Each structure stands twice: as C-alpha cells, then as structure tokens.
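Researcher: Here's my situation. A collaborator sent me these components and asked whether they could plausibly form a single complex. I don't have experimental data yet, so a predicted model of the whole assembly would be a useful starting point for our discussion.
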Amino acid sequence: MIRALYTAATGMEAQQFQIDIISNNLANVNTVGFKKSQVDFQDLLYQTIRMPGAPSSSSTNIPTGIQAGYGSRVVAVQKIFSQGDFSQTKNPLDLAIEGKGFFQVNMPSGEIAYTRAGAFKMDAEGQVVTSDGFTLEPAITIPAETLKITIGTDGTVSVTVAGQTTSQDVGQIELSKFANPAGLEAKGKNLFMPTGASGTATTGTAGEDGFGTIAQGYLELSNVNVIDEIVNMITSQRAYEINSRAIRTADEMLQMANNLKT
Amino acid sequence: MADLMIKAGMMSALYGARAQEKRLEILTHNLANVNTAGYRADVGLFETVLLDLTQDGDSSSEVDQSVPVEMYVGNSVDITPGHLRPTEDPLSLAIVGEGFFAVETPEGTRYTRRGQFVLDEFSQMTTTEGYPVLGGGGPISLDGDGLISVDKQGLVALDDKEVDTLRVVTFPDPSRLEKVPGGLFRWRGNLADVTEVEEPKVMQGSLEMSNVNPIISMTQMITAHRTYEALLKTIQSLSQAEGRAASEVGRLTG
C-alpha cells in the first residue's frame, strides 16, 4: 500500500507537469511564431517477479507473470511545428514562412539561432533586426531614404530609394531547415538552437525544396489551438483528481490497518 | 475446535485483506497511466486456494484443517483497444484492431501500441525515446522533403515515393507479452510465432490513448477499499472473541 501511495504520486506529478506545459501554451496563444509543446507520458518501471511464459515444468509454462508497475512519468516534451495561421499586417518587414524553414538570427554570443517569428524591425543603422535587436544572418541593410521595401517569395530584398526610378537589390534572406525540428531547443524569445537530436541546419534559399516560401506583410500566428488545450487541461485535471483519490484510499486503508491494534 | 474456527477465520480475512492491498496497487498503477498514450491496463489475477492450517508434523488430526483463501497469483494485460485521439501530427499512428508496431531497442525487438513517433537527426522514424520503428526492410528512413503519408495498410510514403511498409505484428498468445517500461512489450515466446497482421488498419494523425477505464477503476477501488475495511473488522472481532475465550471461558468460578 505504501507503493500505491508513491505510484499515485507519480501520476499526480505527471499530470501537474502537463498542466504547466498547457499553461505555457495558453499564455502564448497570441505570440507570433510560437510553436506549442506536447507532453509525452510513459509507464514507469516494471518489477518482474515472475516471467510470463516461464516454464513450470519441462512441458508446461506458467501462463501469467507477476509484474508490478510503479506509475507514470514524463518522457518528452515535444514541440509541434505545425503551421500557424497567417495574419495580414501590411508591414513590409513582417515576414511569414509557409513551409518548414527558419529565419537565421545572429545572437550576441556569436552563435546563430533560428526563429519562425518574422516580425522584423530596422535599427538605427538600417539593419534588419528582430524585436530584440538581433540581426538577420546574412545581415541585410536597408539604405537611408528608402521609400519602399519589397521582399520576394524567395527572400530577395529590393528597395526603391528616393530620387531613383528603378529598385535595387540589397540582399537575400536565407532560410534553414532541420531533419527533426522537434529536437530543437527552445531558448525563449521565440528562438531555437540546434541540438544533437535536431540534426545540423541545412541552409538554402526560400522556395527551394522544403524550405518554404516567404510571405511579405504577413505574420505567422501561434499554432496553439485554445480548444485543444482546454480539452487537454480538463483530462489532465481529472486524471490528477483520480490519482489524489487513489492516494486517499491507500491512506485510509493504511490507517485502518494501524487501528487494528487498539 | 472453536480455536480452529477462529484461526481459519483469521487466515481467511488476512489473506483477503492482502489481496485487496494488491488490488489497490494494481489499480493505482493503472490510474497513474490514465493519460499515457498506448498504455494497456494491468489486470490482477486472483484465485481461491486451500490453505492448510495443520501444524508441521501434526497429521494426527482427522478434522479437515484447510480453509479457502483468496490469493494473488499474477497479472495479465487487458488488450482491449484504447480510444483514439486526433492529433495534427503526421507521425502519430494508431493501429485500429489487431497488431503491434515493432521497434528496435538495444535489448532487441520490442512491440508497442504507442504510435507517437518522431524523426531523429538521421531522419529515421523513431519512438520518442529514439528507438527506430521497424518496417519490412528494417528502420524506416524518411530522408528528404515532402509530405509523410501512411496509408491504412501501413505503407509509408514521402510525397508519392513509397518508402517502406510498417511491420504490424501479432502474437498467438498475448499472455506471454511481458511489459517493459515505455509502453513496450517483450515477447516471451518463440520468435517464429510472431506473425505479421495480414490486413492491418493503421490510422495516421491519431494516437491511441490509455485503455484504462477511470469509472470502472474507481468502482474497483471503492470495492477494494470497503472489502478491506470489512475484512479488518472481521480480524478485530475474531481477535476479541479469541481474547474472551482465553480470559473468560476457562475461568473457574467460586
């Protein structure tokens, strides 16, 4: 019965963790480029006291084994990289990727981080930066006195400067993709870093195989579906409740056993 | 004689109470996994056995000194299917009806109903723990871009290019499946007896959830709880009766 107490506690812990993840998803329901997380549970450790199918004599087998399980645990928190909806902003530096690619961003540490959040701005020098001021890789500088910025579906950035009639190219936005995006490490601020599980980044041009295309004047919204999250929250809460009842039952039975000797 | 009856009652109640404790342990493990994808509930097996109360070496008694008691003898796995939960993930696969997916672990091939798969850094289809999922030709590699589709028969394709067919296997005797952590099963029989399901039904974008029925489990928990209570009360009354027998019946008055 002591084991029943701990087993039910693992169930409560796992569900509590799920609620934490759901809350984070819900808190980011309006975050541009946010990708939701999903918790993956597993059953915990089996103590095999007797194997099923073990021979009981030379010609017969014991048909059932004795196995004791110890509850459940969280095995993985997986990012789901499904496409979020697009929202039109008409802002020339709002970019959305339709496909699997990521924008590359220069971190202050010198590393390159990856993001789907395409709400870019211009800094004092005219460089295209994220909301946190990190520059794009390769860096793109918009000349002063630019009237109009056009970014093509392949990432080509062209500008029309005051006093000129033709537009000029100022660079091209490159995209990266990963064999297993779910293996990327979320660094916060909508940035992701590659890990051993994600594989290394493959860099290419938007519109090429699998990178996706760039849509100017659009933002990719969060892929969190509120209804799904609420349904998960309800099932999680009920599972939590059921496990707490199991703890109470084990506790009461233990109490009764203690009361045997009065 | 009265002494024997008290002893028999005690033993019966004691073994019964222990069986309820075991029931509770199994139920809590099931309830802890009420939200675990692909989990298969444990079922405790209990039998009534005759317990011989004869003292060692004492065969002189002509009275039948055995008492029926309830004993835990092992567990089996409930193989009824769990409900399906739709996901947006092309790598969430559920088997409808018979069969198990085959995965390669360092300890050998294991089987699972848990169809939450991912691609690893080599673009191989694996479980969330990184064990490759097996197709007819071994691990399934989905290198390249495009839409991953899995049809009803388990045929995995990348865009229109067929890659491999998932192995969906079945066993002649499910009671010989041993649970190993991570929703996996180990086949404790002859490997030659593992057969491919002829017409598997694989559903893409769905995940088979736990088959633990919370309502039934809760009811069983209440039953175990109350039975335990009744049995402990029995032990208590028997022990009081025994005490009275010793202190009052034998006393000489006067």
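Model: Some features of this prediction you could bring to your collaborator: Helices of chain A lie at 2-27, 226-258. The mean pLDDT of chain A is 88.
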